[in-house]
Sequence to fold (599 residues):
Amino acid sequence: MLINALIAIEDRNFFEHSGVDPRGILRAAFVNLRNIGLKQGGSTLTQQLVKNFFLSHERTFTRKFNEIIMSLLLEHHYSKQEILEAYINEIYLGQHGSQAIHGFAMASEYYFARRLNELRVDQLALLVALVRGASFYNPRKHPQRALERRNLVLEQMVSQEVLESGQAQKAMATPLGVVKTPGWSNAKYPDFLQLVRQQLRKYYKPEDLRSEGLQIFTTIIPAYQDIMEQAIQSRLGRLEQETNLPEKTIQAASLLTNSETGEVLALVGGRHNDNTGFNRVLNARRPIGSLVKPAVYLAALSQPEKYNVLSPLDDVPIVLRQEDGSQWSPDNYDGIIHDRIPLHAALENSYNLATIDLGMAIGIPRVKAMLRHLGVQTYIPEYPSLFLGSVNLTPYQVTQMYQTLASNGFRVPPRAIREVLNKTGEPLQRYPLDIEQKLDSRSVFIINFLLSQVVKQGTAKSLAARMPSYLPLAGKTGTSNDLRDSWYAGYGDNLLAVVWAGRDDNEPAGLTGAAGALQIWIDMMKNLPIQPLTLIPPDGVEWVNILDDHRVDENCSVGQPYPFISPYLVKNIGECRQTANTTDTEPDTTPWSIFDIFR
Fold:
């Protein structure tokens, strides 16, 4: 019935002509000369296939001539059945955001949420109606136009004696019946597929991907994808209520990878009822805030002769001159000056002033170089606000940065494709694990330990409160100026996820990293099989028991083990005193303080 409808309205002489219908061309030429321009094409199905497959859509006589020659050649080399099969699978029938709807099978699920062989004659006629202009006759935007065109298809089927008049009248009286929400299986995860296409473009032309019958095996785990989409959707509604923002104001994006192999297991480019087609994981470049701080501290710890976890930093006010001559006076988020503090406390609590003190000591070039080693390939500003995250990155780029940390200093590019086979099942391209050691595993281990302390007792300790049995996990919160961007990047032994939340219009969302993105991350991971971080030090790293910034005997129960790179071990020896600082030895009876929630 689909073939009958298609031939009746588009090319009634399809099985008789040799690729070009002379009568159709003469009719179109008469109309074009009368209107002084190219108004009609008189195209056969073969010509339409050539135009869609090989040529541009410009309206010129040169292109039309090429179309005719190529159609004749196509008919010479292929059977009518093969041409018709290619047409049915290739023809453009709509657009969903950035995802083009090609072929009647995909269009059937997109417009009716049903398989093609389950459609009624009125539904088939509507799909055929879209061939003349999928945008112009879009049944969701222009239902009256689509209805009139569908009924014309049914009338032509009657005139061509492929449909009885009674059936046609019944079909014409039937509503369009288009579903509100697209539900086609071929593009159920369009944001993930956009990444797949992006990575495929390195090796294949777009027309090859549509015409060669390639079998593409991807890394997605649909169950994980569904969990992430649901977590984002449900949590964003609650966050909008908490911040008194209208519904659908806050957006979010997240990328989940295997923390060892870099395989992309799920990708959510926005809340699932968003139809803009904008993939925020790949395209939303936003200030990353404190997510940059591990790079600053790693750059310091890579100089073990100068810095270790106890190195004293000055958390005091500072005034710096910017490139434009203006003065920059940063503050800590809680507004408190902490004076002289150890390096580990500065990172655990994400103190801005101490981080700037460290960054200025080691220098901007060293921090920039560290970001490059971590995999950041975009523009990096060379002024002090870099230390607090003034660099703009996409969630995908942030994932690459933290993937290097989770992989113990090996740069593992996130990848969405496992292998590509041709239509006979022979491998064309394999995507092996591509790793390159970029950083000293000893200093990376120390950073991973400190990021686990961020979760245990720092800015992300609401995670420890909600998921105590999953610890240790590593992670870092991030917040941009005026609470515009909320970030969290966290990982265990097997999974790494980056979450961003904010507003597309760049207005304040009223969320810190801990209050927004971290809560989404927790909602996801409570339903995913994340494994605790294995903190086994590599050769050259030793645990030292620390109390009040002094080394104490390993049997001192009130001490805290910290990693050091040998032979640069802490030399200050202290006593195991039960009167140590209560902030280090007494349990915290509340999950987090008011400042921690909004840090």
Remarks:
- The first strand starts at residue 92 and ends at 96.
